[in-house]
Amino acid sequence: MKNKKVLYILLPAVFIVWGYIAFKIFGHLYRNDSVPFTQGEIKTVAKKNSIPDTFSLINNYPDPFLKRRIKKNNTVSKRVKKTIYDTKKIVWPVIKYTGRMENQHTKKSLVSITVNGKECIFKTGEQRKILLY
Questions:
Q1: Would the pTM of this model clear 0.85, i.e. be above it?
Q2: For every residue of 66-93, which 3-state class applies, written as one string?
Q3: What angle do CA 114, 115, 117 make, to 5 degrees?
Q4: Element (DSSP H or E) covering residue 38
Q5: Cα 48 from chain centroid?
Q6: Neighbours of 32 (CB within 10 A)
């Protein structure tokens, strides 16, 4: 009789606890947090009395690793004009590994690879030039 009373009290308590946990999990999974997007005007604010911030770093402290002071180089480097090269867009082939086959008796392997829709079978260590286009 004693065990039935404990069972009648603990079983609903277990269901309530697990129900609360499931409610929290599913509440976070299926939550709709979307914020409506409204396109408005972009306002720019001009700063009044803007003073340019000019400063220079003083880095004449000793190097903690070398235990000596770093000599300051006062030479001004020339700006190098960056040249822009015409870059061609490289179209990489679609390479897909489709499987491996092994001979049970000789233990030699063959690998199947698909390059741009063309299937090629390679032996171990074999190299081939494949036409990509």
A1: no
A2: CCCECCCCCCCCCCCCCCCCCCCCCCCC
A3: 75
A4: none
A5: 42
A6: 4
Both tokens of 124, joined, read 């171990």
Cβ-based neighbour number of residue 73 at 10 Å: 7
d(CA 70, CA 64): 11
Which residues in the chain show pLDDT less than 50?
none
Backbone angles phi, psi at 18, to 5 degrees: -70, -35
Distances (CA, A) of 89 to 79, 84, 86, 92, 115: 29, 15, 10, 9, 19
Which tens digit of pLDDT belongs to each residue from 62-77? 777 876 666 666 666 6
**Contact (Cβ atoms closer than 8 angstroms) between residue 64 and residue 73:** no
Task: Scan for tokens 């409610």, then name that residue.
Answer: 23
Distances (CA, A) of 109 to 65, 120, 127: 54, 14, 14
DSSP 62: B
Residues 78 and 102: their CA atoms lie apart, in Å, by 63
The DSSP element (H or E) to which 101 belongs, if any, is strand 95-102
